[in-house]
Amino acid sequence: MLGLLSLPFGVFAPFAIWTAIRSLACIRALNGELPGATRATAGLVAGVLGLGSLLIGTAYWFRAS
Which of 19, 64, 11, 26 is closest to 44 using CA atoms? Predict the structure, then answer.
C-alpha cells in the first residue's frame, strides 16, 4: 500500500522501502511460511521508483528556480 502511495507522493517512499525490507526479512526468517513475498517485492520496487522520482523532481525544481 505504501509503495503505491509513494509513486504520486514521494514522501511515502522511505517508509515503503523500510516496510518492504522488513516484510521480506520476516518472510525469509520463517522460510516462506508467510505469504506476500511478491507483494513486498512490488512494494519495494514501487518505493524505489517513488524515491527516484522524488529526488529527480526535487533536483529539477531546484535547478529550474
Answer: 19
Burial of 47 (0-12, 13-18, 19+ CB in 10 A): buried
Rounded CA separation 54/40 (Å): 21
Give me the mean pLDDT over the 9-33 stretch.
94
Residues of the chain by 3-state class (helix, strand, coil), percent to 5: 80, 0, 20
Alpha-carbon distance of 23 to 20, in angstroms, equals: 5
**Number of independent structural domains in the chain:** 1
Exposure string over 32-43, b if 16+ CB within 10 A, otherwise e: eeeeeeeebeeb
Boundaries of domain holding 59: 2-64
Q: Is the whole model's pTM more than 0.85, yes or no?
A: yes
